[in-house]
Amino acid sequence: MGDLTNSDYYAKNQGNDVSSNHEGGFGVSVMELRDLMELRGSEAVVKIQEEYGDMDGLCQRLKTSPTEGLTGDDLDKRKEVYGENLIPPKKPKTFLQLVWEALQDVTLIILEVAALISLGLSFYQPPGGDSGESCGTAAAGAEDEGEAEAGWIEGAAILLSVVCVVLVTAFNDWSKEKQFRGLQSRIEQEQKFQVVRGAQVIQLPVADIVVGDIAQIKYGDLLPADGVLIQGNDLKIDESSLTGESDHVKKDADKDPMLLSGTHVMEGSGRMLVTAVGVNSQTGIIFTLLGAGEPVEEEKKKEKGIFGLEKARLVKKQDGAAAMEMQPLKSAEGGEMEEKEKKKANISKKEKSVLQGKLTKLAVQIGKAGLVMSAITVIILVLYFAVDNFVLQKRPWLTECTPIYVQYFVKFFIIGVTVLVVAVPEGLPLAVTISLAYSVKKMMKDNNLVRHLDACETMGNATAICSDKTGTLTTNRMTAVACYVGDVHYKEIPDPGALTAKSLDILVNAISLNSAYTTKILPATKEGGLPMQVGNKTECGLLGLVLDLKRDYQPIRNQIPEEKLYKVYTFNSARKSMSTVIKLSDGSFRMYSKGASEIVLKKCTKILNQEGEPRVFRPRDKDEMVKKVIEPMACDGLRTICVAYRDFPGDPEPLWDNENDILNELTAVCVVGIEDPVRPEVPDAIIRCQRAGITVRMVTGDNINTARAIAIKCGIIHPGEDFLCIDGKEFNRRIRNEKGEVEQERMDKVWPKLRVLARSSPTDKHTLVKGIIDSCLTDQRQVVAVTGDGTNDGPALKKADVGFAMGIAGTDVAKEASDIILTDDNFSSIVKAVMWGRNVYDSISKFLQFQLTVNVVAVIVAFTGACITQDSPLKAVQMLWVNLIMDTFASLALATEPPTEALLMRKPYGRNKPLISSTMTKNILGHGIYQLVIIFSLLFVGEQIFDIDSGRHAPLHSPPSEHYTIIFNTFVLMQLFNEINARKIHGERNVFDGIFRNPIFCSIVFGTFAIQIVIVQFGGKPFSCTPLDLEKWGWCTFLGLGELVWGQVIATIPNSKLRFLRGAGQLTKKNEMPGDEDMNEDNEEIDHAERELRRGQVLWFRGLNRIQTQIDVVNTFKSGSSYQGQLRRQSSTTSQNQDVTNVSSPSHVSLSNALSPTSPAGRNQEICESSNQDFWKTLEFYGKFCKP
């Protein structure tokens, strides 16, 4: 009550001079508006009435007009007083912070410490002149004073190289962050919103919206600011992102007018007065409480890519749930299933992508191997030194010699660490990042705006695309080309004179009033161009019909403005129609309706005849009309829309909320056939997809005949093929059991042949995507991409592996749920995304092939060298340089290869394909052998070949030898030429093909070569190098070039000859599903007893299979029949048996969810498959001995 009196007093005291007490001359302050926006429902209505009289009063205080909006001359002042509509981003990390982060790397810290110890000890002079001799071999070689003083150089050089590595890493992170921010601002600029300014409806970037603006809101919008509803039609808002409540909230100017930023418009349309923007809006306040995203949050954002709409997205965690709740999934599965689904949706986006999962595991495996190798190296060196000095030469440990011994141990330790540094492929994550960031940048030019980085790479594995029809496969320029009016079917638009005045009037009024007033046809911008269609394209087609009938819709709309419309039933996916009620001058009501012809005609009981008078419309007439009018139109690929009306008495007024009674007993006016031509580039894009092994399916809300006609024009289906074209009703009948639940078994009978799903609801789309993803019919799990533009496509876009939203026709909700936004709404851009995705995968494989060769060789050389000669042939600083070449530079060079058309000539890799193919394994081993042979030949007989002093067994601090310089130089040059070999990973012969299309690659190769010359000729002591003459350079280059020749030799060896490679590639087989185990550990639902039970089942299958195998071997013996033939037959029957076993085993009978690859049951199947491979190996083993 106190508040009330306060506000009363405040109002009285202000008198007439309302604006004088407020900043900027406006009649209401920021805080008052903030307080107002915290009220809900009737409280808010009361507050507005008390404080401002009514909505017009509030508009006057804010100096705006509810119909004409702002004039636009005080925008800067408004921004100053009420703030801008953006939440200031968190400051980016400075370069120094990134340097500090890069320094946290454990291996680098170990190296720094070792280098510092080495540096400190090198300045230590043992006391007494003769202690040198008493310390034995340890001190040998330190006689030359100049050399002893140069002992610090190695430590300093290591520190310097660490600095280099750190700076390069920090620079990469910095440029990555910069790119992300660029991408973020690009997404923010993409988001536009409709506002009224100066009585004109214009599209504004969200950041330019100010307090006092009148915003037009419609179905599918994501509200960019807080506001109060001025006028609304059937408006329902999903506020789950703020409140967590999944029910849609009905908004009404008289009952609950408060609209909040970050919420989604699920139905209807309206106009709102913007009252709070940026940090003062509800979302902004929450972001401020979160400290505009703590560092952790920031990390998440960086990982996930970007969140659009001025970052006014609420806490991300709720997003998955919100999208699932948005969707009426009840018909499909029970509530429990939904819960699981939600959990899964939340997990799935957090998962690493397939490629990152495989790489992380590979890096860990290599790292472990490196750690073991480096530990063994250090132990062997220390033991060898100790045994040699203290056991064989029986020297005592002298105190004054301790620093010299420690120096040796530090040297051994540094060798060990360098082995580790070279072994750990820290370049892998860098290569992925560079490759993805590069691709994302280039994909922008191909009209793909990537929101989640990993989507780009997942797209390369896509096996199925479920595409919308309208706007994606077609041009989305609707034109009315045929109609049925007054009992006559016109194949072309008739002359207005052919229709009666009454029919024409009703038709023109029905179309003009019963469509969104934001839909317009504007004159062409260019001479000779087509008129511009603004707003809903189907409505534009109908307005086009009005213009073709030589009438104009605008005067009719001016006569009855939007606020005078009595009631509007907006279009939604359940109604599939839109109706508008107007009050006539005599007090009665007329409702105009339009929608999908089959649906509206069912509700018609009358139809206008040739004179424009209603006549009875019997069910028999409806059937005839469907056969003679609608089907022929649909078969020509036309979308059919029926326009109808109904009159109601003014007294008593009908119950408008009783929709079923209102939307009935209509009078049909006409049926219009609207054409939406296929985009000219689509048929070719679809052929390319099919060639690349990707199945394209069309999922549309249009009727079956139209959909089939368009699918044939696009090339999705070819006459004579075995395919399915069904509508939503038939689809549900086939996949659901008697209880109405979706069964995976039934789904598996439908989806492989399904090409067109017509008259589908968003739930059908979601069910189809889920069914394909969860299916275990094929060896590889299907990777599904989906396109969507409507709010209700959100769940399907989230469920898909890659969701494409339409940049032009798409709603904000769809964009928010998607991974990639198609800025031109064009299907052929999806094909480009596939190409880039495959290119990312190939780039990483190229880098991997190169990196693993260097790793294997460098580690073996360092390890063997250290064990045999007590010193690594490649010194610490040299190793760091090699590490820099193969990690940072190579990842830059190989990860930025541009894609070629050849990428679309092969089938998708699939999720379970090992990261390292057999061809790659062959190349890695082949080149590894060549390099090891050359290096070891140089190491052990190099001094004889070149007639120089041997560098082996050199004492501490001895000067660099020509011998070891040749080894280092040859090693680096071999890597350089092998980098050219690594450009091809599918066994191609021409490794130079298209090399000049990648300037980065060329400049890195030449740049590295130039730096190598400088290091060898002028590197001196820090790089342990001594200058080489021209002849020796010639030999080093010749041995390097040998890599290219050897590459040709390797390419000639067929993979089939190298049986063992098949197993080698399987190293990464267990990486099938990234984060698989981790995910299951997070899911508390899986208890250990169940896991044990499943393990038991697997062992049981194994045992059974083994017995079966042995019986078959015995049978093969007895019959003496061809062993190979038997094996082949056996293999096929076992795979069938196995499918049966998997389906019939108790743990697999449960919901389809249990068979998804991420579930333990799905993993069971994979285990069974791998165990089957084991049996065939056993069988082959038997076979070798059993051949008669």
From TrEMBL:
Tree of life domain: Eukaryota
Matching CDD domains: P-type_ATPase_Ca_PMCA-like
Any single Gene Ontology cellular-component annotation: glutamatergic synapse
GO MF term (any one): PDZ domain binding
Keyword Glycoprotein found: no
InterPro entries the record matches: ATP_Ca_trans_C (IPR022141), ATPase_P-typ_cation-transptr_C (IPR006068), ATPase_P-typ_cation-transptr_N (IPR004014), ATPase_P-typ_cyto_dom_N (IPR023299), ATPase_P-typ_P_site (IPR018303), ATPase_P-typ_TM_dom_sf (IPR023298), ATPase_P-typ_transduc_dom_A_sf (IPR008250), ATPase_P-type_domA (IPR059000)
Enzyme nomenclature, EC number: 7.2.2.10
Ranges that cross the membrane: 369-387, 412-438, 847-868, 924-942, 962-980, 1000-1020
Residue ranges constituting the Cation-transporting P-type ATPase N-terminal domain according to the UniProt record: 49-123
SUPFAM superfamilies (UniProt xref): Calcium ATPase, transduction domain A, Calcium ATPase, transmembrane domain M, HAD-like, Metal cation-transporting ATPase, ATP-binding domain N
GO biological process assignments: regulation of cytosolic calcium ion concentration
Identification of the protein by name: Calcium-transporting ATPase
UniProt organism field: Oncorhynchus kisutch
Native organism taxonomy: Eukaryota, Metazoa, Chordata, Craniata, Vertebrata
